[in-house]
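Task: sequence design from structure.
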């Protein structure tokens, strides 16, 4: 079983950046999470994180208000999980 520490670090980073509205780069997020393995960062970025980010130019991004509902560990973890629930499981 893999560690959830990188996901928790991503949640903390994104939550802090939503509050501050400080722009950040992809490299800064990758450094915080440790998602340096080829493909890992790009998968998280494109499939789970990109909808919450606003491109502000020069390779920098801000966290959008759309992220606010996902600021708890339970909701964020469910969103970024590689193991998606099928509709029948979600109702149980």
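Answer:
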């Amino acid at each position: 079983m893999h560690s959830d520490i990188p996901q928790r670090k991503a949640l903390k980073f994104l939550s802090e950046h939503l509050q501050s509205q400080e722009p950040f780069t992809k490299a800064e997020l990758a450094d915080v999470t440790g998602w340096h393995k080829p493909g890992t960062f790009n998968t998280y970025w494109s499939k789970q994180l990109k909808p919450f980010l606003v491109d502000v130019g020069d390779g920098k991004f801000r966290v959008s208000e759309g992220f606010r509902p996902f600021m708890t560990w339970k909701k964020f973890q469910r969103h970024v999980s590689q193991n998606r629930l099928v509709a029948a499981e979600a109702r149980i």
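The first helix runs from residue 5 to 20.
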